Amino acid sequence: MLTTFDRDEYVHAALRAGAVGFLLKATPPRELAAAVRTVAAGNAMLAPTVTRG
Fold it and tell me: Helix (H, G, I), strand (E, B), or coil: what is residue 22?
C-alpha cells in the first residue's frame, strides 16, 4: 500500500486486508523500487515511521 497517511489504524487495516507492504508517498524513488523488489521476493516491507512507537 502506498499512502500519505501513517496512522496506526490505516496500517492495521491494510495489513488485515492482505497488504504485505506499507509505504508513504514521500518515500524516495530508489527506496520505493527496492521495496517493490522486497515484496516481490516474498518479504514484507513497512515504512520505518509506522514501526516506531
Answer: strand
